Amino acid sequence: MQILNGRSFCAPRFPIRGRCVNVMLAVIVCLCLWSETLESAPPRKRANETVTALEEIAWTNAKQIWEWAEPGYQEANSSKLLSSWLASEGFEIERGVAGIPTAFTATIGNGSPVIAILGEFDALPGLAQAAVPYKATPEGKDYGHGCGHHLFGVASATAAIAVGREILNGDIEGTVRYYGCPAEEGGSAKVFLVREGLFDDVDVALHWHPSSINAAGDRSSLARIAVKFRFHGISAHAAAAPEQARSALDAVELTNIATQMLREHVPEQTRIHHVITSGGSAPNVVPDFAEVYYYVRHPDASTLSEIYERFVKCAQAGALATETELEIVNEGGILDILPNNTLAEITLENLRQLNDLEYTSEDVKFALKLQSTLSNPKPLASVREVINRSGETSSGSTDVGDVSWVVPTTGFNTACWVPGTPGHSWQAVACGRRKMARAGMTLASRVLTATAIDLFEQPEVIKAANLEFERRRGKHGYRSLIPPDQGPPLNYRKPTTINSRD
């Protein structure tokens, strides 16, 4: 007997059916409570859950870009995949920015602050590799993701989507913009994006990079100039009429010898390296065309410019001695990264809090086999560590440097490769298709997402970062190493043809 509104009545006795009803009611109540809890959860927590929900599609996209392995300025498929994915999430897409067919921006939200998230997707020549712990070059392929840019572009897009959903929900205010950045490996694409003013309204820029370690901090890099010296001579029979020839290959060799002598007389931390990209076709034909491709680096861009002036004289000497014509093709110049400790501290703390990397038994088996091919393997347990790189200068270069001179910028690394794996190696390519790469990529998405939302919710940090930016930049301002009349070197990864002139 039960009492309802003062009246007594007998409840119907359907014990099994009644239990089902009670269970259904309980489920409905739980779902309502869960829904309310999800809606009331802080944006950072919800965005992290979005990253988890997107993990499968993110990994599918990363594997596809890994398979395509497209070279700089030729990443048509990779660029389309990423921009279309972002468009499906409500981002406004602008393709072909700065005169670069594969560059794009994807924007969602309105007003300030504007948080930029950088993404890359180009591969490297000579690094085609299967996802196995021994060297295996797939037939018919040359390029491979030896720097993990298939992970870079996708993780950044995942973070942009996670943050974008919070903006669309009205839980954070401002704008998030993804930058699809091609040709980081020598093509200097971001320099042209900066030159076109695409970062003029940005408050903070975030980036990351795959590695064999987890690291963050107030870190700089080397400025770099890329250049091709092309020599045009006269061909003739090397045995029957050598006096009638003027060897372009001799000019390259003399340039290289002069450069080796220059190394003794340059400042500390200077790096000079090269490849001969064209040197003739047959030993009995004196080459009338030859080309050498150089990178010159130094931590200070002004010092690098002075070194470069002396460096060009080495090529001029080679041309003078061989009576050949020198053609200088500037491929790009990028600045050293201007660090920002205010931003780096937030990223470092988020990386420490969110690092959940653990190797599966399958990872361990693969890693141990691959480490037998490494010259300096590291303990597998190091994937649980986070290194503070504040105050250091990386021995590498990146066109993120130019971005950092026009907007406060910070970045970090996550362990996507077996500890001890060097970048730009076949081992890095092999790791990039394994579960460990997926885990490192997902961690990067979480750190980018958390850092972006922290900045949206703490405008005082953005203000402090900009004050530090102005102080560090001082009166120097932004001065590109690329001549103002130079356009993007869209063909720099295409084979050089004999006697070709750009």
TrEMBL record:
Coiled-coil segments: none
GO BP, one annotated term: folic acid catabolic process
Enzyme class: hydrolase
Alphabetized Gene3D superfamilies for the sequence: 3.30.70.360, Zn peptidases
GO MF annotations, alphabetized: dipeptidase activity; para-aminobenzoyl-glutamate hydrolase activity
Region of interest called Disordered, as start-end residue ranges on this chain: 477-502
Keyword rRNA processing: no
Keywords: Hydrolase
GO CC terms in record: cytoplasm
Record flagged with keyword Nucleotidyltransferase: no
Name recorded for this polypeptide: p-aminobenzoyl-glutamate hydrolase subunit B
Gene name in the database record: abgB
